[in-house]
Design a protein that fits this description.
By secondary structure, this protein is of the alpha+beta class. Helices cover 25% and strands 14% of the residues. The strands form three sheets. Strands 1-4 form a two-stranded parallel sheet. Strands 2-3 form a two-stranded antiparallel sheet. The longest helix has 15 residues. The radius of gyration is 16 Å and the shape is globular. The termini are far apart.
Length: 112
């Protein structure tokens, strides 16, 4: 499409709470059936790109934090939305894009 000078558009979603899959105090607020039904609905609507985590932690994973004053405000929002502040620690490995990661205790650190 691009080589023909045409614009290709892929519909996508990036949200902090989709399909009711937030979390409260580390506990998921959705189940597998909700996720499957939600995925079928967004596919039916033409969505082909899906980022299930945005500014706040949810049942899908933890967010990449903002820094500075914005980070303080968003972390406060995360606390209001989830019942917890970000769980911040130093990332391991040499191929990180950020030296700090936010991650709930039960999540893998693969995204760091």
């Amino acid at each position: 499409m691009i080589s023909e000078g045409k614009l290709a558009v892929v519909e996508g979603i990036e949200v902090s709470r989709i399909f009711g899959c937030g979390e409260q105090n580390g506990a998921s607020q959705c189940d597998k059936a909700q996720v499957l039904a939600g995925m079928q609905e967004v596919e039916r609507l033409g969505v082909r790109t899906f980022f299930p985590v945005h500014k706040f932690d949810n049942a899908f994973g933890g967010t990449k934090m903002d820094s500075g004053e914005t980070g303080v405000i968003v972390n406060l929002g995360n606390r209001l939305e989830t019942g917890q502040f970000w769980n911040v620690h130093t990332c391991a490995g040499s191929s990180t894009t950020s030296s700090r990661c936010a991650d709930a205790d039960r999540r893998a650190l693969a995204s760091c």
